[in-house]
Acetyl-coenzyme A synthetase
Amino acid sequence: MTDLSHGKTYPPPPEWQPRAWVNPQTSREMYDASIADPELFWDEHGQRIDWFKPYTRVKNTSFAPGAVSIRWYEDGVTNAAYNCIDRHLETRADQVAIIWEGDDPSESKHITYQELHDEVCRFANVLRNRNVGKGDRVTIYMPMIPEAAYAMLACARLGAVHSVVFGGFSPDSLAGRIEDCGSRVVITADEGLRGGRKVALKANVDAAIDRLPPGVDVDHVIVVRRTGANVAMDPLRDVWYDAAREMVTAECPCEHVEAEHPLFILYTSGSTGKPKGVLHTTAGYLVYTSITHKYVFDYHDGDIYWCTADVGWVTGHSYILYGPLTNGATTLMFEGVPNYPDMSRFWQVIDKHQVNTFYTAPTALRSLMQAGDAPVKATSRASLRLLGSVGEPINPEAWEWYHRVVGDDRCPIVDTWWQTETGGVLISPLPGATTLKPGSATLPLFGIRPELVDADGKVLEGEAEGNLVIADSWPGQMRTVYGDHQRFMDTYFATYPGKYFSGDGCRRDADGYYWITGRVDDVINVSGHRMGTAEVESALVAHASVSEAAVVGYPHDIKGQGIYAYVTLMSGVEPTETLRKELVGWVRQEIGPIATPDLIQFAPNLPKTRSGKIMRRILRKIAEDDFGALGDTSTLSDPAVVDELVNNRQNRR
Ligand code: 6R9
């Protein structure tokens, strides 16, 4: 087996020992105990959160085919906002909860736990005045401003279910998500601001609502003022948040909700069909994000912690807000981008706010790496103690650069593997305990039972490569696909009955370390964002000139994977450069900029089996420039199609 790290390993630095929550021995003991008696382990950690009514039953879960059911702490009663805010007030009212850093480096804010409480209560009252209550869905389409956090926590306070839609999604994508969960309230801002550029959020909401089918209604749009832009306001439907805020008090009781009450829906791409509404519930999710935030980031009181994700993704939910706030942490929220005003921005923010823990994505690191070491070295970063990575496999070169240049050879890196569906990190080093191997997410966290299986579901032992499944439930796991439990069971529990299938391939080395190799389904990972190839295909075929499309990923130096689209045009349509550009713009408009095709190849024919199935394996190989490995093409209905595709392939950038 090839060791991608060239055998180089990094033991935990000795200076970590006095302070770390766990060392190599205690972490192993804790892991073993969590597997030997999950009930006992998760009962103990159920105490991480406060309960209005304590639970008596810890775990009631089944991965049984056709009867998947996941319930944790089911008879307990609690509230997520209470755990993130109210319970800290006695000891932390004046401690900073959120440090907000604006897109413009001259703008930042410190929000204490008391201020967070007051703002969340006000937001909750504004929602309550618009009839939002327990179980109602609220769509949040916001820039990275404190009001996004207030809005999410306000929903939690009322027992309403938030569905955050990333601000980079198009009106169409937003409309689909509003419709799927039936939100009657949308929270947005006049405009977003990223890298000095404005994003027309309110206009997108208007366009999305215009597209809703008859019978699907949005009653209220709450608009936070961010840039002060002059936006259209429908007097019957739209309200400025600042005006509504003036009308309410800073007191709002927390709704008491059952442990399994839905906390949020987050849409994510899969290999087929429309994005799925991943549903997370209250207590188990909080317990899991809080325990993982504590141990993975070795979080101690007083630490300044920064996760650079957007709240539109699960990483923002779990590790900007819910995990850190449950732990009473100080969490930094950043509105901007890594290269604005210049390539030093991340490191300047670290110095400005004396950040101790920094958590980002490999794609950001790879693009910063290209600018060389100087923009990093121009800053001190002396406050940094720990670095983290998430979203996609981190290549050993980027890992080494992160360690050597950003961390001055001093800071461990936690490469955290997880998914929207898993709620929190499942495989990751613990900085005081785990010897690191660059490129490996290393070992499972407490309570997690990963297995590698072959195509037939046979469990592989020892050193092996296969598909990554998880053999038993953990509290942070998604509970269902919103409104479609059958789809939940079919997607995650049918491939390997009785096990949760992640969709990722993985190797395990002789030390038991896990090396995620990437998706094994038709999902591609573009700059750490998940994209279903089927989604891009259906956007393309919705264009009048396109008769058929097949989309695959290909290796991309910065994005990890790029989007390669093979497009067959309607007969009589000329394949021109203008049309190529139009199609790129079309997909951006249909889904959003994150789905922008990098390469479009016009293909008069696509390789198909005799039964008419597109042979994606071959398309992937051509996109990868791997022509030697096209494999068996004899089952194609017309093998000559392949030569034509190879001859006309788009050059990789
Ligand atoms: C948290 C998040 C999940 C997919 C996942 C995998 C990839 C995430 C990774 C990683 C290798 C890591 N992924 N973290 N691959 N090493 N440390 O990213 O959730 O957007 O749902 O994506 O991302 O392929 O299946 P999500």
